[in-house]
Amino acid sequence: MNCSKIHKKILQYIDGELTGDENRAVEKHLKNCNDCQNLYQKMKASWNNLQEEKIPYQPFYYTRLKQRMENEAERKTNRFKKLVLQPAIYVIVLGFGIYIGIFLGTGLQPTNTAVADADTTETEYIRSYAESQYWNGMDLEKIEKEFLTEKQNEAQDE
Amino acid sequence: MTEQELISGIKAREEKAFKEFVDKYQELVVNVCNSFLHDRDDALDVSQEVFIKVFHSADSFKGDSKISTWLYRIAVNKSLNFLRSKKRKNIFSSLDLLLEDKQNNPIDSVADNGENAEEKMSKNEDIERMIAVINQLPKKQKTAINLNKFEGLSYKEISEIMNISVTETGVLINRAKSKIQKQMIDKIKKNKP
After folding, report:
1. Residues of chain B contacting residue A52, judged by C-beta atoms under 8 Å apart
2. CA distance B56 to B58
3. Is the ipTM of this complex over 0.95?
4. What is the domain count for chain A?
5. Cβ–Cβ of A45/B126 closer than 8 Å?
6. B64 shares its domain with B96
7. Which end of chain A, N or C, is surrounded by fewer C-beta atoms within 10 Å?
């Protein structure tokens, strides 16, 4: 066996997975080749030390797990509240507000006939008020004129 | 309680059964996760996810396979998912570092990664290199070699966990070993003085 063939079988040799003949051939080569022997030693050290030290039984593992499950359940409830419940409440309140607004607005508006009557009444009232103001104005003007003529007469008399 | 009673208890949401189940399989699950993640804290974290999954999906366990096989399957999947998300996070964090052009304060970075740095320093360089090589293997090869090497499972047990034939398991493990030894030999040769 040459070096490159040995390189391809090193891990299988370390794990004892080679057949008897192959095993003997590798052993023989390793005894005579320093480079391959060094390589084998390094690979063996890394491969065999690769097994992590096992994590032992954790006494408070279940308590921590339970706490995490409770936290996750709470987070889910909060997420439901935040993403579904809260917007739903906002929409309902907003909708209710709009409805109340429309309802109140409709209640203040008179019916069609009432509007027509109110229009006429209001126009008439305004007209009559304006006329009274106008006549009053005219009256005032007359009185002023009378005063003026009175004053003029008195002056003439004197 | 027998295994069947434990599963029935978990299905009925009995806390006592779940506690006993967790206590019984805690070491197995934690160590399977650790064989993939090579980090104690991550392994403990992911193992908890495994038990949460068990609690919520106990109904899906039909009893066709052993409980340990089912647990191995969940633990392997959770660990691989964790590795995938960690890899993605690492890519983004390295991108962030590049984009932000951060001024690295060596004292801060040592303080932030104090535990990691200590762990890394204590680990043998060659072992770290080998772990890195294993982590780069394709998913199936990585699963098969981890279960075989770290958990000491037989080809038959691995084939049951991975839902493949025993022959396929052997092929996966041999391919994984070939890749590991090739890359390790290349690296050892490169570092040769």
Report:
1. 31, 34-35, 38, 150
2. 6
3. no
4. 2
5. yes
6. no
7. C
